[in-house]
Amino acid sequence: MKVRTDYVSNSSSSSFIIIVKEGTDRTYEIKSDFLSYAKEWTSYSIPNTNGKHEFGWEWEDTNSFEGKLNFVGIQLLYLFLDKMKERKYPWERKYTGKDFDRLYDMLKKVCKERFGFNVKLNSNVINTDIGFNKDEGGYYGFTTLADDYYIDHQSSVTEDSCMEMFDSEDALYDFLRFDESYIRGGNDNG
Fold this sequence. Notes:
The protein is of the alpha/beta class. 28% of the residues lie in helices and 19% in strands. The radius of gyration is 18 Å and the shape is globular. It has a three-stranded antiparallel sheet, with no helix packed on it.
């Protein structure tokens, strides 16, 4: 969690996450609800519209499993997009950089081993746009997430925020399974 101790001139979000070690455990219900994604050939795609998927300035707590899973998925997609920028060539399939692969594997393992279902990132929410740079006289491409899938920039992994759920498999499991673990949205505009 970021703590601001001096004057800040810009407006920004101030979201954070709370992870408890005990509380109302929803593992059984989650296993039942996601049973149709337990077979090897099925996967639940995140983020999606089944839960909250826009984490901006609004003062709101999100503790639903689907909302928290979407939050995790969006954070991972931001990491993935950062890794894509690090490629030497557009066709290069080897990604280097931040811990995307390790964290994505952790999410898949926790969902499979502890909740009994398969999960995958939803690549359909990734947009690639083409622009024209008049000064350089050429086209360029940039990749973003669809407009209705986001975490405000100062509360996302792009600013090294709100990633404590990936401290360990247990932390991720506790974040997802307990109703008392949640995402607090808000802003610091007073």
